[in-house]
């Protein structure tokens, strides 16, 4: 699994303590900031789809959004 895929998975899972380190590792490996940001946006789209289908609820969405926010701070 690439670092970008890890970032995407951790944002989707709402792992706000892990996301900043993974974003930094992805940057250190030479990934473009735009590519990392797009992965986080894509993961939030998945979260939105899960919310729309009733699979998750507002708290889970907010947790994922916080994780993305922590990743964006690093970018």
Keywords:
75 residues, mainly alpha, Methyltransferase, Methionine Synthase (B12-binding Domains), Chain A, domain 1, 4 helices
Explain this structure.
The chain is mainly α. The protein has one domain (3-74): Methyltransferase, Methionine Synthase (B12-binding Domains), Chain A, domain 1. It has helices at residues 3-13, 19-28, 33-52, 58-74. It is elongated, with a radius of gyration of 12 Å.
| CATH hierarchy: architecture | Orthogonal Bundle
User: How many domains would you count in the coordinates?
Assistant: 1
- Counting DSSP H or I runs of 4 or more residues, the number of helices is 4
Number of extended strands: 0
Any idea of the CATH class? Answer: Mainly Alpha
How would you characterize the largest beta sheet? none
Look at the structure and name the CATH superfamily.
Methionine synthase domain
Mean pLDDT level: 96
Return the CATH topology. Methyltransferase, Methionine Synthase (B12-binding Domains), Chain A, domain 1
The class by helix and strand makeup works out as mainly alpha
Percent of residues in β-strands: under 5%
Element order: H for helix, E for strand? HHHH
Helical content stands at over 70%
- Which shape, going by the Cα principal axes? elongated
The radius of gyration computed from the alpha-carbon positions, rounded to a whole number of angstroms, is: 12 Å
> Low-confidence parts lasting 5 or more residues at pLDDT below 50?
none
The end-to-end span amounts to 21 Å
């Amino acid at each position: 699994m690439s670092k970008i895929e890890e970032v995407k998975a951790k944002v989707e899972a709402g792992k706000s303590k892990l996301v900043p380190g993974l974003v930094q590792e992805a940057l250190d490996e030479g990934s473009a900031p735009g590519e990392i940001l797009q992965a986080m946006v894509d993961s939030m789209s998945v979260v939105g789809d899960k919310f729309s289908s009733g699979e998750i609820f507002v708290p889970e969405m907010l947790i994922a959004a916080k994780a993305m926010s922590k990743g964006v701070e690093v970018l």
